[in-house]
Amino acid sequence: MAATALFGPVVEDLGQVEEVIAETARVDYPVLAALLGHILQTRGKRLRPALVLLAAGFYDYRLERLKRLAAAIELLHTATLIHDDLVDDAATRRGLPTLHSLVDGRSTILVGDYLFARAAALCSQTESVRVMAVFGDTLMAICDGELRQMFGASNWRQSREDYYRRITSKTASLFRTATETGAILGGAPEPAIAALREYGLSLGMAFQIVDDVLDLVGDERKMGKPVGGDLRQRVITLPTLWLLENRPEDRTIRDIFEADGDAEEAVRQAVETIVASPAIDYSVGVARSFCQRAKEAIRGLPDVPHRRTLLDLADYVIDRSS
After folding, report:
1. Would 116 be classed as within a structural domain?
2. How many Cα atoms occupy the beta-carbon half-sphere of 222 within 13 Å?
3. Residue 287 and residue 213 in contact, taking contact as beta carbons nearer than 8 Å
4. How many structural domains does the chain have?
5. Against a cut of 0.90, is the pTM above it?
6. Is residue 85 part of a domain?
7. What is the domain-level CATH number for residue 173?
8. Alpha helix locations (H) across 89-172?
9. In this predicted model, what pLDDT tens digit does every residue of 71-87 receive, in sequence order?
10. Residues of the chain by 3-state class (helix, strand, coil), percent to 5
11. Alpha-carbon dihedral of residues 154, 158, 163, 169, nearest 10 degrees?
12. What is the residue range of 40's domain?
């Protein structure tokens, strides 16, 4: 089932969030407008803005402020993808050319920076200092995760702690921010804010682990990219860690990191080795544990449609792996 089919009580309100996002491309400078239009047409599932609205739906739901926050979260995510694609030298995303495949690197960085600024401006319109502080902390965390990935690309000797810290920064921090800030704007009491923060963090961890699994076993047509992309970028993920930890005599992963040039054959062999091992099932099991933790975090919240939708979304994250 598509994520959008699970958004239930906030589906119609996401249309207003979409309008705020679309306004971003309406600028006076035609070149910038065209570049922004290209980026914003490659829309994803809008899971993060949906989480903002769902987390706000327990107590005091006010769409006017919430839609700006939800749009800010999505634009922040989009900006990180622009920089990711540049760093990874990715040619396509969701089946469309990446921005840096169309313009030079300097222009790509500036468009990404523009989206960061636009996201911050929208966040400030919530008039919540607390929300703005969380937003700023999240941007720093994402940059921290990117730097850890970049500078760890030459080292296959990475620990489980390194991996969890990286995906917390790169992915889970934004999920956590979506639910935490949504709860803040929704007037939730402190225990509920903490519960929704934990839900977002755990869901984000599961989401990234499943993404790492799909990078090895996913349908290339649906992903819009070949399997094994993380290994090509020399990024250590949980399935890869399983192989390194449980079969230390296997040099498949080390051969990729130690290759001077094209490591395509080593990547192909590594994908086959990992997929044939228990690494995939193990990783899905870890993701399932994080989803269970997310569900448990919100068990005590009011039994409203928003909570039931959040529970369903946790199941959806795991269903993506099958």
Report:
1. yes
2. 9
3. yes
4. 1
5. yes
6. yes
7. 1.10.600.10
8. 105-124, 129-151, 160-167
9. 999 999 999 999 888 87
10. 75, 0, 25
11. -50
12. 11-319
